[in-house]
Amino acid sequence: MPEADGAATAPLLLTAAAMLALRGAGMLLAGTLRPDHPFIRWAAAVSQAVLAAFVTLAVIAPAGAVAAVPLPARLAGLAAGLGVHAATGGRMLPSLGAGLAVLLGVRALL
Amino acid sequence: MPLALPLSGLRPGLSAALGAPAVAMVATFLAFGAAVRDAGLGLPWALGASLLIYGMPGQLVLLQFAAAGGGGGGATPAVLGAVAANARFLPMAVALTPWLGGGRGRLLALPFIAITPWAAAMQALPGLAPTARLPWFLGFALVSWSLAGLATAAGHALMPLLDPALLAALLFANPLYFALLLAAGMGVPASRQAVLAGALAAPVGLLLPPAWALLGAGVLGGTVAFLAGRGRA
Predict the structure, then answer these.
(1) How many domains does chain B have?
(2) Of A34, A103, B50, B112, whose CA is between 20 and 30 Å from A27?
(3) How far apart are CA B120 and CA B136, in angstroms?
C-alpha cells in the first residue's frame, strides 16, 4: 500500500460511515410516509434540482480534467446528446455516444 | 416482505443497468481510478472510495484532500466536505424509500442509493408492480456497483496510457448521461419545474463553498419548484 494511503484511510472510512448514515436517515424519515406525501414530493423536487444543478455546473463551471475542455465543446457535446435523444425517441446509448463524439470533435477543432 | 429475493426478479433491473447507465458509470469510475493513481494513491484506496462512498462528488472531495498529502487541518474538513458534497443522498433516500416497499428487505438497498440507480429507479419503479420494485432496484444497483468497482480498478491500471482529452471525455459522460435522464422526465410537470429551477439555481452554488454548492443550489431550486407546484395545485 502506498504511504499516502495511510493518511487518507481514516477520512475514507469516516466518510463511508457518514454516507451510510445519510442514506439510513433518509430511509428512516421516509419509512412511514406515502409517495404522495408533501415531504416526499419536496425531497423528490430537491433531488432532481440537485441533479440539474450538477449537470449545469459540470457544463458551465466544471472542475478537474473537464475544465480543460473549452466551453463551446462542452455545450456542443450537451446539445448533440440532447438532440439525438429527442430525434431517436429517447434512446440513451446513441445519445450518449453522439454527445461524447461531438465533445471530442469540437475540442480537437478548437 | 420476505428477505429472500428470487434471482429472476433481479433480471429486469440488471438488464436495464447494462445500457447507457453502464457506459456512464464505467466512464466516470474509469476516470476516477486514473485520477487516484495520478494522485499517488493505491488501488485499495481507490476501490474503498468507489465502493464504500459510492458518490462521485464526495469521492472527488476526498481525493483532493488525499492528493494534498492529508492537508494541514486534519481529516475533519475533508470528511465534512465529502459528506456535504454527497448530502443529496438524504433527500434521494427519502424520495426513493416509499417505492421500495415496507419490509426490512428494503434495507438491502441502503448502500446502493446513489445518483445513477436513484435516477433510473425514480423513472422505472412507479410503472412496476409493488412486488417487482425492490428486486428491480437491487438488480440495477448490483450491476452499477460492480461496474463501478471494476472500472475503478481498470482506470487505476490504465492511467499511464490515458490521453488527457480522453480522460476529460470520460469524466463528461456522467453529467451528459444525467442530462439525458432529466430530459426523459421533462414530460412530467413536477419534474420539469424541479429540473428548470435546479438549473437556474446552479449559479447560486458558485457563491457557496465548493462542497456546499450542489446541495445549496438543489435545496433552493427544489424548494422553489415544490412551492410553485403547490401554489398551482
Answers:
(1) 2
(2) B50
(3) 10
